[in-house]
Amino acid sequence: MSDSLLRRVVVETFGGVEQLKIREERLPIPGAGHVRVRITSIGMNHADLMARAGQYRLSSGDPPFTPGLEAGGIIEALGPGVTGRRLGERVVIGPDAPRRENAGCGGTYRSHYLVPAEQTFLAPAQVPDEQLGGFWLTYLTAWGCLAWRQPVQPGQFIGLPAASSGVALAAAQIVKERGATPIGLTSSPDKVARLKALSGCAYAEVVATRDAQGQTTPWYKDIKRLTQDHGIDVWFDPVAAGDFLNSEIRTLAQEGTIWVYGLLGDPGVVDVTPLIRKHASIRGWSLGELTEAGPKAFEPGCRHILEQFAAGHYHQHVERTFKLDEVQQAHAYMHQGRHLGKLFLVP
Description:
Layout: E1 5-11, E2 20-26, E3 34-43, H1 46-53, H2 57-60, E4 71-78, E5 90-93, E6 112-116, E7 120-122, H3 136-149, E8 157-160, H4 166-177, E9 181-186, H5 189-197, E10 205-208, H6 219-226, E11 232-237, H7 242-251, E12 252-260, H8 273-278, E13 281-284, H9 287-292, H10 295-310, E14 318-323, H11 327-336, E15 342-346
Parallel strand pairs: 8-9, 8-11, 9-10, 11-12, 12-13, 14-15
Antiparallel strand pairs: 1-2, 3-4, 3-6, 3-15, 4-5, 5-7
């Protein structure tokens, strides 16, 4: 590849992985106040798969578009008037930069990225280049809900379904750091031991919601036992639907809250009447609520996350890294849902 070319992934029309194409273009020159970052790491997220399939148009818009919501790399060019940034610095692209609804700079599935200098954060030296693009959609999504929107309190029990996901693994670390007890849930019993064996695993316990034959277990009994009949104070859940949501409501503590941040569950009938007796609630959450609140809202979270990584308190588990040319294979692998933690693309 020529050093004067930018390579980016383009979704030409909504559909399967075959719609992910690589395009080469002339390398852009940064304008006033902007920097050009040579991308070394692109964090993959379930939202990228949804965007490709046409299920996330608020963020992606209509084709053709470049997917991707986070990245990091090395500054290789400065536009006129840039202060506070230098050539060669390792940076993380700010969480608001790629977002279309915020008049963003475009998706991050590319080799180089133009961004206002003020929308970059200096990266911790402790994080390698190939992991610089994996902070916001995991850690900031969790921090925004559990530290900014409804700060969890010491001694509370926090339920984290999809425990093998990057968001849940990040949430467990944030919850533990705040003095609460994170309990992970997974539908795959074989993942329980794998999760507990992860370096830096923050879960106090991991519960399987299905058995080896795929049948639902009475997992609510495990929650009752683990919380000494108190129940879960806060569910932070990308599944919340049908029978699973019914069980969450059943295990919810008095005045508890279920935060729904994803669409992984199968729709079904839900009995919400226990919420009245428990003075409890179900609420929706997305990272967009935090970024739309502006830098004064999300920058403290960004600084907290980067400081915790620098101090060695937070740890990102990387399942696998793909080359940018392998983007179709990467999307197919992520769709299988068998991984633990984060997947990355590397240009």
